[in-house]
Amino acid sequence: MRLLKELKYCANAKEAKTISQQIQRLWSQSGSETIDLLMTWAEQGISAENYGLALDYLDTAIALSPTYAEAWSRRAWIHIQLSDFKLAMLDLHHALQLEPRNYIAFFELGIVMEATERPELAIKAYETALTFYPQMQQVQNRIDTLLSKDFDQNI
């Protein structure tokens, strides 16, 4: 994908964010009007923090289209919000098998690793995300925070 290459080598953070948004729009295209509608409803549920409803829509989307990586990734995000890290890991595993360049899923994996007190694995996940999107400020901030905690503990 040309956009992923552009994202990787883009030195301007604002321009990189625009490219990332284009990539995410492409990844969100399921090819099915039904799945797209379910995803829209799921996003509305997520925005309203109605995670149960959003999970219902995502469960249906995954049942109808198990090879649609974005549904797995979005469902993982809900599980993270609900602190259900085991289910988040399972969904991230599926998402990354289907789309191994999904830097958002690697970011989410880093969050799970942090939450389960595995900072070294969190850093690895974050660094993997940065190989695709080096300008991703959230990821850079998380790595800096983890490294400063490690530094503080070693003093």
Mean pLDDT: 95
Instruction: Tell me the fraction of residues in β-strands, as a range.
Output: under 5%
Report the total helices.
9
Helix content: over 70%
Number of domains: 1
Under CATH at level 1, the class stands as Mainly Alpha
The CATH superfamily name is Tetratricopeptide repeat domain
**Helix and strand composition category:** mainly alpha
CATH architecture grouping:
Alpha Horseshoe
Number of strands: 0
End-to-end distance, in Å? 45 Å
What is the name of the CATH topology? Serine Threonine Protein Phosphatase 5, Tetratricopeptide repeat
Order of helices and strands: HHHHHHHHH
The biggest beta sheet is recorded as:
none
Q: Mind telling me the C-alpha Rg?
A: 16 Å
The dominant shape is globular
Low-pLDDT parts are: none
Task: Note the topology.
Layout lengths: L1 H8 L3 H16 L4 H15 L3 H14 L4 H13 L3 H14 L4 H13 L3 H14 L4 H18 L1
Features:
single chain, about 160 residues, mainly alpha
Walk me through the structure.
One of its GO terms (cellular component) is endomembrane system. This is Tetratricopeptide repeat protein. Keywords: Repeat, TPR repeat. It comes from Bartonella schoenbuchensis m07a. The chain is mainly α. The protein has one domain: Tetratricopeptide repeat domain (Serine Threonine Protein Phosphatase 5, Tetratricopeptide repeat), CATH 1.25.40.10. Helices cover 81% and strands 0% of the residues.
Write a brief structural summary.
The chain is mostly helical and 155 residues long. Helices cover 81% and strands 0% of the residues. Helix 1 (2-9) runs antiparallel to helix 2, helix 3 (33-47) packs antiparallel against helix 4 (51-64) and helix 5 (69-81) runs antiparallel to helix 6.
